[in-house]
Write a structure and sequence with these properties.
The protein is mainly beta and 419 residues long. It has four helices and 31 strands.
Length: 419
């Protein structure tokens, strides 16, 4: 009996691969992830990660189970060097590090006076279950003559593997329209598939958008919500294309979508930055640049750098940033006229940024909190947000307005992962 009780007790011990509330990680030099208790900020463990993660922290993935993945971002078209050089994905499975091949492919064949170039550069993401990886890629066949693109045929594909990159299982595919390349560069006029997945890893949904890079501004053609049901993944077309997804929850039923400024060619402010929440067939505008900052005469753009839905989906928290600084000159917009009052108000607003705004998800959203000189990390609970103020992690209580400052110093919010 004593042995049985010991075995039972061992089985009940917490495992590093069992999610127990929010987990908090901070990326530090020279290359390590330190886990802190999300409430007490006591150090729990340290995991060594590649130093490259410090250069591109957005490329480092962490799921709720504490697994991590770092994959180099590679886009089409591939160069000959891209195809020759090894591209490895680094992964921490929760116990030990490993590397797997990213699977870049480039094959060139003669087709009469043309060359056909078959290319694939898949993106890889962690799953939420701790035993799979998800892969997404544009399987492209491009016709080229004398290094000028003529046409392209693309099939977007999704598949799943184990953590070693084996046991592949195809999940979904979508044949994009065949496309001629009038500018001699296919990416300027032809669509490819771009995927967004939850920051905690793929569980039962992801989002796909057909996207054209364009010569000056991108074009978002159509989006679909892919859901899993009994092992099968099926798409549902969305009413409008998504542009910059900031967060999504409830199986994709609630999506935070940012609509960036269309400014190009040296201009920052040529349209109205907005952020909307799509939920239950409704579109709720939670950020409207021109309505809030009245900055149409000046070439400074205000936008949401990130956003996170609250656990109960009743609130959304956002980091508001800008393309200008308060102590530097701001030029007029392309069609702007000098307006001293507008200029003064813009500089006053810039002096508060970055700032965290929290709004309710009602038809007419109410601002629940506005925290100047802060950047959002995420939600600790339904009433508490984790922010970065003056390079320290701080918990802010929306109900009481109280701040709980930690001793954990960070370079910036991009180096903090709350899962």
């Amino acid at each position: 009996m004593k042995i049985l009780r010991l075995i039972a007790g061992f089985l009940l011990l917490p495992s590093p691969l069992v999610a127990q509330g929010p987990r908090l990680w901070v990326l530090r030099a020279p290359g390590e992830m330190v886990e802190y208790d999300a409430k007490s900020f006591v150090t729990k463990q340290t995991v060594k990660v590649p130093a490259e993660a410090l250069k591109t922290p957005a490329s480092l993935q962490v799921n709720r189970l504490g697994q991590m993945l770092l994959a180099p971002a590679v886009s089409l078209p591939l160069s000959e060097d891209d195809a020759k050089e090894p591209h490895k994905v680094w992964i921490w499975d929760g116990h030990a590090p490993a590397t797997i091949d990213q699977g870049l492919k480039r094959k060139v064949e003669d087709r009469g006076s043309n060359k056909e170039i078959a290319e694939l550069a898949p993106a890889v993401f962690l799953a939420g279950d701790g035993i799979h990886l998800f892969w997404f890629g544009n399987d492209a066949r491009r016709l080229e003559r004398e290094e000028v693109d003529l046409s392209i045929a693309t099939t977007w594909r999704a598949w799943q593997t184990d953590l070693a990159g084996g046991a592949r299982a195809d999940l979904a595919s979508s044949k994009l329209p065949d496309c001629r390349c009038p500018t001699g560069s296919c990416e300027e006029s032809c669509a490819s598939g771009v995927v967004w997945v939850p920051e905690g890893g793929v569980e039962n949904f992801f989002l796909l958008t057909e996207y054209v890079a364009g010569q000056t501004t991108p074009v978002y053609k159509a989006s679909a919500l892919y859901r899993e049901d009994a092992g099968k993944w099926s798409p549902t077309a969305l009413a409008e294309p998504l542009e910059r997804v900031l967060d999504a929850a409830s199986g994709g039923n609630t999506i935070v979508n940012a609509i960036p400024d269309t400014g190009c060619c040296g201009w920052s402010n040529q349209s109205n930055d907005q952020t909307v929440v799509l939920t239950n067939g409704k579109k709720i505008t939670v950020f409207d640049e021109q309505a809030t900052y009245k900055n149409s005469d000046y070439d400074v753009s205000f936008f949401t750098a990130n956003a996170r839905l609250s656990p109960d989906l009743g609130l959304v928290a956002m980091t508001i940033a800008a393309t200008a600084q308060p102590n530097k000159p701001i030029q007029l917009s392309e069609q702007g006229q000098a307006n001293p009052q507008e200029s003064q108000q813009i500089r006053k607003s810039l002096a508060e940024l970055p700032a965290v705004a929290v709004k309710s998800l009602e038809e007419s959203p109410k601002q629940v909190a506005f925290l100047p000189h802060a950047s959002l990390v995420g939600w600790i609970s339904e009433k508490e947000v984790l922010i970065v103020e003056d390079h320290f992690l701080v918990v802010y209580n929306l109900g009481t307005g109280a701040r709980r400052k930690s001793t954990v110093r960070v370079d910036d919010a991009a180096h903090v992962f709350l899962r």
